[in-house]
Every structure is written in C-alpha cells, then in structure tokens.
Amino acid sequence: MLLEFDADQRLWQETVRDAVGKQCPASLVRGIAENKGAPEAAHALWQSYLDAGWTELADPENAVELAIVLEELGRATDPTPFLATLSQFAPLAGKRFDPSKAGAAVYDGVSANWSRQGWVLEGTSKFVLDGDRAEQIAVVTPAGVFVIDGGVVNSTEAPGITSRRRDVFDPVLHVAEVTFDRLRVEEPDRLDLEPSAASALVERSRHIALMGLAITMVGACQRVLDLALEHAKSRQQFGVPIGSFQAIQHKATDMYVAIERARALSYFSALTIAADDPRRRIAAAMAKASAGECQSLVFQHGLQTFGAMGFTWENDLQFALKRAKAGELLLGGAAEHRALIAEEFDATRI
C-alpha cells in the first residue's frame, strides 16, 4: 500500500487545485455568504464540477482521487453539495447513483414499515447535509436502505416529506432537518440486498463519509494556516514582521504538525477504502478524530495569530474556521471517535 501520491495523482491534485482556485475564489464564497446571487452562483459552480466529470468519482476504488478533490474543496470552503453527494449519498446509492444529480444521506431517525400499499417511512433526521437541496436522498432504516428520486425530494406537491434548512454558523453550508410523515414508497425504492449485505453497505458508506469530512476539515485547516502565514509575514510590530517572533513561529509549527498528521490519517483512510482493507473502520475513526483535534488547535492558533482582526467579518479567515468546526460537529466529534478507537484496542487485548 503506497503512502505517497504517484505521478497521476500529483497531476490530478494540481489540476483540481488550479480549477478550484479559479472557479471558487474567496470573493465567490463571500458573495454567497452575503446572499448576493447565492443560489445561482452555487448552482453554476456545481455545474462546472459536473462538466469536469468530478462527480464520476463514486466508486470506492477512487477514494484517494475523491479525497484529493475534497481537500481542495475544503480549502476553498466549497458552497456546493459535492461533499454530501459524493461521500455520503453515492456510497449508499450504489448503482442507482446519478452523477448529474445532487444527493444527501439520512443515517438515522427514520423507520420503515410495510403496508399493503408499500413501504411507509416515518421519522425525523435533524442534521442532514444538503438535505434541503438534494435531488435524491438515501435513507437508512432498520428495514434497509431506500433511495428516493428527485420527483419526491424538495417538491411542495410531494406529500409526506419536508426539508427545512437549519441556521448554522457556517453561512454557506447547508444542513437541513428532514421529516418523513408517513411517506409511501414502493418496494423497488429499497435496495435489493440481504440484511447482512445491507449492513455491510451502510458500514462502508459511513467510513467513506467520515473520511470525506476528515479530509475536508484538513483542507479548511490548511487554508487557515496559509492565511496565518501570509499575515505573519506582512503584519509588523516594533518594526519587524510578527512572523519573526518565536511565539508566532511555535504556533505555526504546531498548526503544521497537526495538519500533516490529520492529512496522513485521512489519506490512509482513503487508501483502506480503495483497497477494501478491513482496517478501514478504525482508519476512518482515526482520521475523523485527528481532524477534529487538528481543527481545535488550528482554530485557536489561527485566531491568535490574527489577533482582533481574526474576529472581523471582513476577514476571509472566518469561512475556513467555520467549515473546519462544522466538520467536527457532523457525524460525531473527536471524543466519540477516540472512544471507538479505544474500544477496538481493548477488544484486541481480550
């Protein structure tokens, strides 16, 4: 298992970084955050990803290439549904995934009961990434996984399902509360899998989702470090750049080390997913835990490097900080995943 990018992957990284830098500049993110043509700008950006073929990276074998894209989108504070579609919906939908449609995943809170007219979905999931603008939703229930197509999702005429965007501190991130009120779906909407196969699918999908969030947080933290270094080189106190002060150098070094550790674990998680390695469960937990700890340190040191300027709306630092913090809060924080790692370790000692 190679732990460094090969030539093709390095070229892919450069290509994605260049494209994201041009298509998703900080000015676009700020414009969406300030609600200046927000839906149209985000849709145009999403369409550019479709045209570039980035949504074709749905196969788990492409996990490393997907991680490369997600890191760059995390660095840019991407306002599109790419993260939810490729790392959460696509792994659950499998062959039903349509690369031209945005998707979302509901992991819990919904039950499915059989009736004469078909299946009935009922329940509420409170924190669904991009649930308010998804064209497809994959719903995990005790009875299996259901894939609901675009004719039902987000339609005011569709009885039984409502989605409402929640207010979160990341102004360009869409997190929704999705409610199923006795929504009737047909048997073909349920993935035709044996219970054991369905359970394995959900587990692997969760690993991909955790990896996606972790590498997105790494990209956001890298953006914080880049901005902090740029500020430390240009901001002067006592006639010299503040970057010459040892206290600032120590903070920058700590941020760099934390980011590199989280990045290494995130890409290791992607490698285990691509290789269908049984270590992918623990690798995904390690990646999410490390990324969570990384964002905490980077959040603190990044703000301290900027001082009071870091708290102003005019500073682009806020967008990367908020994206990193949001990733920590979704699908379990660092403490939860560290506990899972500890349980795995204890189990091997028995």
From TrEMBL:
Ranges of residues in domain Acyl-CoA dehydrogenase/oxidase C-terminal: 212-343
Gene3D superfamilies: Acyl-CoA dehydrogenase/oxidase, N-terminal domain, Butyryl-CoA Dehydrogenase, subunit A, domain 3
Cofactor(s) it depends on: FAD
Entry superkingdom: Bacteria
Alphabetically ordered keywords of this record: FAD, Flavoprotein, Oxidoreductase
Record bears the keyword DNA-binding: no
Molecular function (Gene Ontology), one example: acyl-CoA dehydrogenase activity
InterPro entries, per the entry: AcylCo_DH-like_C, AcylCo_DH/oxidase_C, AcylCoA_DH/ox_N_sf, AcylCoA_DH/oxidase_NM_dom_sf
Family (UniProt): Belongs to the acyl-CoA dehydrogenase family.
The protein's name in its UniProt record: Alkylation response protein AidB-like acyl-CoA dehydrogenase
Organism lineage: Bacteria, Bacillati, Actinomycetota, Actinomycetes, Mycobacteriales
